[in-house]
Amino acid sequence: MFVGIFPACHDFLETRSASTMDGDFVTSSEANIRMAMSGLYETWRDCAQNKVFGDGLWYGADVPGSDITRHPEAFTNQPGRHWPECLYQNGNYASQYGLLSYLKEDDIFASLYKIIAVSNAITEAVEARDDYESMINGKPSEMGQLYGEAVAMRATAYRELIKNFGDVPYNNRIGEVAQGLVGRDWIYEKCLEELQKVEPVMSPVNIKSRFSQTYVDGLIGRMALEAGGYQTRRNDIVRKDLKGNTIAYEQLGTTNNDATYARRADWQRFYSLAKTYFHKAFSEHLGTAVFHETDPRADEANGRIYNNPYQYFFQQMMDGDGMYADESIYEYPMQQGIVNDARPYSFGRPSNGGSKNAYPCKAYGQGRVNPAFYYGVFDPQDKRRDVAVTVTGSDGAGNEKLIPFVPNSKANGGGLSFNKWDENRQAHPWVKAQRMSGINGPYMRLSEMYLGYAEACAALGDNGEARTYLDLIRNRAFGDAAKAKTDAFIAQEGSLLNAIIQERGFEFAAEGDRRFTLIRTGLLPVKIKYIKDLTRAMIDGLKANGYYTFENGNTISNTVYTKMVNAKKEKGYRLTAQCPEGQEDDPLLYPGWRGQKDNWEELGCVYKGDTLTNLAIKGLFKPLSSSEISALEAEGYTPQDWGTDIVKYEDEYYTYLFYDYDYTHAPIYLWPFTPQILSTGGFQNGYGFKNE
Length: 692
What we know:
By secondary structure, this protein is mainly alpha-helical. The protein folds into 2 domains: 437 residues, Serine Threonine Protein Phosphatase 5, Tetratricopeptide repeat, CATH 1.25.40; 111 residues, no CATH class. 40% of the residues lie in helices and 9% in strands. Strand 12 and strand 13 form a beta hairpin. Helix 7 packs parallel to helix 9, helix 9 crosses helix 15 and helix 18 crosses helix 19. It is globular, with a radius of gyration of 25 Å. It starts with 29 loop residues before the first helix and ends in an 11-residue tail after the last helix.
């Protein structure tokens, strides 16, 4: 099984690893296996939300580093994440990047191998049972389910390792030593083979906090698209497939730091695999998952209108502990008031509240949205836009505030912010302390399966099926086909396949999906250049004219006008929902999905004087004439810097946006191995990273 060029990796983890664990760790009794699996889920939850899907490396580059999303603070404030985010300045900074400037020893890498080690112990315990052969060749069963969950956990950990580090050590047996750096293509094939083996003996999704047959179908689809997609691979590793054959590649661009950006020449067979299993997931193994094409919530008597099935998904995750969104295939569960909840704190709607007893408590807001994308790419009629992005945050005392474009965090600056998780929308917010919101992590959901299936179909020439599922997603987002204008959208993107990938950007905007999607589809250089050029045009227009109008009709201006309003008195509620059609000129209702929680008072918030909780905004999308400005000022509106700050901080919004990337050299997007991993593993870094 030789697939690398380096010596064996002995004890590459300080903790009890796959290469040192003995067979007594997990016995073959069903009760013991079930107990070990429960512990493994807890280990995975900690790793997921602190390392790879809430904070950690996901926080460092996945979320802010794409054409859609960016960072809020000054580039020089957090170089440990901003250099990886911007592809190490076209790879030139890779050799200067400090190995411990962001990564820590015994951290993300070690955490994922802890998961692999326990997964290995569980799978071997099951394989040692007398009924293993009948179980693995039979129908779904309790033991088959447990075995499948362990195999899926191992594959999930390897997927995260490959996504962040590239080629890594591999081991799926207790007592065996992982042999150097194993080519990721081999690991993908091995995991896909194992997942296909266990899929038939598992059951469709029912308990959404556990892996299911549906999850395994989706994981096969997810990993198959990645295995068949573009990635940057170092050139000093011998690359073999599972049968030992040398792999041929199709290269994009030029070599960079002795690494090549390419996909496998046989990529179609992986896309075919993805197509098969995505379709099995939603046609045969749907279980309790539901895709809502219309909003099941009724409009309220006070006039608040919902009418947005896309937002309903996120609202369900904010409705309380033990509740899961209908569309979810798998969510890792968070418990309010007990477990540190990284995602809503780091990537929720920002709040200036203090760390304790605030309304809501502090939310850092480390993921923001590129203004050119929000204004110039997101269609104003797309109901996902206001769910994904907000122009206002919370002051922490129950009031709304405009978030300026000055570099900063919380609601003090950083500009357009993520909006999908907002403690204002929780049924029962945890006001006692920050980072305790209890909002689950949505690791897989149905819309990803539909779009992954559509992508695979389009890439393989099955355009009819591809268009059906693109329409399903897009029509929900716009309300109907007439508003979706999908034919025009496809023409604009240049192909059905490109349109599906762009649609995925809208569907998962502000969720950290975009960066790796662009990498694996080969569209990273194209989309980066587009957003850079669009940003350049926007800034030049703001400098020359005080405003810039995009092709979709949106105008960003140097100044907007705002006024605080008693929304409960004026509207009957504070927390706004979907802006009713025809009321886009209402400065309180548009853009939608903002405001403040209706009843902060019941949770201890004390307002002083007139309760002016909500922000009315004028001039956000249309330029204002001098007479309109005079009238607004007479009504009590005051000017607020808006595009002016983008111009003032041009380096933050343009220069450092994929700093010096030339769209040709292989993108260096991976993270280096730390000194301890290198010294104990017996291998060296690639991609231009230092080794000491």
